[in-house]
Write a structure and sequence with these properties.
- By secondary structure, this protein is mainly alpha-helical.
- The protein has a single domain, classed as Ferritin, core subunit, four-helix bundle (Ferritin), CATH 1.20.1260.
- Helix content is 63%, strand content 2%.
- The protein is built from 9 helices and 2 strands; from the N terminus they run H-H-H-H-H-H-H-H-H-E-E.
- Helix 4 packs antiparallel against helix 8.
- The chain starts with 22 loop residues before the first helix and ends with a strand.
- The N terminus is likely disordered.
């Protein structure tokens, strides 16, 4: 089920939430989240919270995996250690919010979003790590952008929580890009542009099941 955005009324306490986004983040993404996804999200509040919790857990897992695989990179270790701690804290906060609202934490199948990006990973290092880090940047940037898109239409508690996430996670995509550029002396702008385009295709194409990173409803 989806609803038209025109039917929704922004909450007075949350107007102007999109101004929280860093200018660099808005410039990084090729397209904004479509209104159709926003309406779909607000029609599925429990799924939104459950999948958000799963996203936070996956983000921490990705950071931990990079910690184990690349022990020879001090900056990567520092950035990913901090990111993993923050994502696990956010996971705990989402689960606590769900408990207060009587939302049961159940398993959801993954959206095609992350896999749709990872299918383009190059097989050899350091190219593969560069691609993984670019994808991490895109996932973090899109997540932050979607929090900001949702905030004006949420109740006060959830809007306040998502505002804190926008502020704390707004730098994560820049950390990922910094690490990606650190892997090689050669420019990676062309590779970044490739993944930015693929990400936009996933965001504006259709999906049959709502998820935090799904496209628009079919």
């Amino acid at each position: 089920m989806s609803i038209e955005l025109a039917e929704l009324t922004p909450s007075d306490h949350a107007l102007g939430a999109e101004d929280l986004l860093p200018e660099s983040l808005n410039a990084f993404l090729a397209c904004p989240t479509p209104d159709a996804w926003l309406g779909w999200a607000l029609a599925n509040p429990e799924t939104l919270l459950i999948d958000h919790a799963q996203c936070e857990k996956k983000a921490a897992s990705t950071a931990m995996n990079l910690l184990y695989r690349h022990v020879d990179q001090p900056l990567l270790l520092a950035k990913m250690s901090q990111l993993a701690r923050e994502e696990l804290l956010h996971f705990e906060q989402v689960v606590g919010l769900m408990e207060r609202r009587g939302v049961k934490y159940t398993h959801l199948s993954a959206s095609r979003y992350a896999e749709g990006l990872r299918r383009h990973l190059r097989p050899n290092e350091p190219e593969r790590l560069i691609d993984v880090l670019i994808i991490g940047a895109l996932i973090e940037a899109r997540s932050c952008e979607r929090f900001a898109r949702l905030i004006p239409y949420l109740d006060e508690e959830l809007a306040r929580f998502y505002r804190t996430l926008v502020k704390s996670e707004g730098r994560h995509f820049e950390d990922y890009l910094l690490l990606a550029r650190q892997q090689t002396a050669a420019p990676i702008d062309e590779r970044i542009a490739f993944f930015v385009a693929r990400e936009a295709e996933l965001i504006i194409s259709t999906d049959t099941a709502f998820r935090f990173h799904s496209g628009v409803p079919a």
